[in-house]
Amino acid sequence: MEPIFLAPYFQKKIWGGRKLETQFNYDIPAGDIGEAWVISAHPHGPSTILNGALKGKTLDVAYKENPEYFGNPKEPVFPLLTKILDANDSLSVQVHPDNEYARIHEGELGKTECWYVLSAEPGSYLIYGHHAKTKAELKEMIESGDWDHLLRKVPVKKGDFFYVPSGTIHALTKGIVVLESQQSSDTTYRLYDYDRVDAVTGEKRELHLQQSIDTTTVPATDPKLNIVTTTQGESKVTEYLQPPVSPFFYVDKLDVVDELQLSRGEHPYVLVSIIDGAGQLVVDGQQFGLKKGTNFIIPNQVHDYTLTGQMAAILSAPVEN
Predict the structure, then answer these.
(1) Which residues are identified as catalytic?
(2) For the Phosphomannose isomerase type I catalytic domain, which residue ranges apply (predicted)?
């Protein structure tokens, strides 16, 4: 059985740039490309399978038609989405709903996410959290545009990791590139967009002030992560997220030096994105070349696999309910 390799789906964004081409050597469309949906079964941008018996299918179709590759899951939709984001300009200040609010109002999953920072220009920062103590204070500060007092700014550098549960006010700002692991959702509520005007429509982008107030967690609190690093020879595995802190996905970083032997374990399948370096994936004696920007899934039929070479990867897997 082979791993499932995937081709990204690219999204144009008002804040996008060209770093997906220059940093990852992706063949991206013309214009401002903000996002590569590198492992996606979301209908707004599904990835296409590049190899094996499922070659040519989009991941959403494969998930429905070939459930055995994913451990015959109970979830009706593929629950995870991996993206690479190029913030050539600042994203809107935004918040995402939880599962219940999104189900009622949007008909899809909520959106909890996390970021691994791939690059950041000197002086870069995130919007991460807020200073309002009550919902009434939050509403007053949003409606009056008191952003300097409301928004919390956090310095950021390459290699940083941030967990962003639903209900967290947040934004990437200019000069940052991240790999984002998230629930498979495309629901975003904007509360501030710097009064930008869309080049096509000539109008300001829509804001969602009431939804933002409804879904923002007050007061804001920083998640307490239990980050654990283990070594295997010179290679190491850093566990960033696991239950109960993260109820929807596991996220690890793999740093491969020569060889790293891995197991799918109890996960029904595993998502892997190579974020630096190059090497090989070995499955049942078969070797598959890997380089920065390669994305694949270890399906349910594969239990043990090995990474060789000099590279770094982000791994994620669903939490089964």
Answers:
(1) 190
(2) 6-104
Domain boundaries, the chain: 4-215, 228-318
Fold classification of 228-318 is: Jelly Rolls (2.60.120)
Strand ranges across the sheet with 170-172: 151-155, 125-130, 170-172, 93-95, 189-192
Binding-site positions read 96, 113, 170
Handedness of CA 89, 93, 97, 101 (dihedral sign): negative
Q: State the binding site for Zn(2+).
A: 96, 113, 170
**For residue range 3-29, what is the model confidence (pLDDT) as tens digits?**
999 999 999 999 999 999 999 999 999
Confirm whether 4-215 and 228-318 share one CATH topology.
Answer: yes
CATH ID of 4-215, from 3.40.640.10, 3.90.76.10, 3.40.980.10, 2.60.120.10: 2.60.120.10
pLDDT per residue as tens digits for the range 146-196: 999 999 999 999 999 999 999 999 999 999 999 999 999 999 999 999 989
Please list the residues that pair with 302 across neighbouring strands: none
- Dist CA 208 CA 189 (whole Å): 5
Structure tokens given for 188: 């975003």
Contacts of 283 (CB under 8 A, 6+ apart): 1, 2, 3, 298, 302, 305, 306
This model's pTM is above 0.90: yes
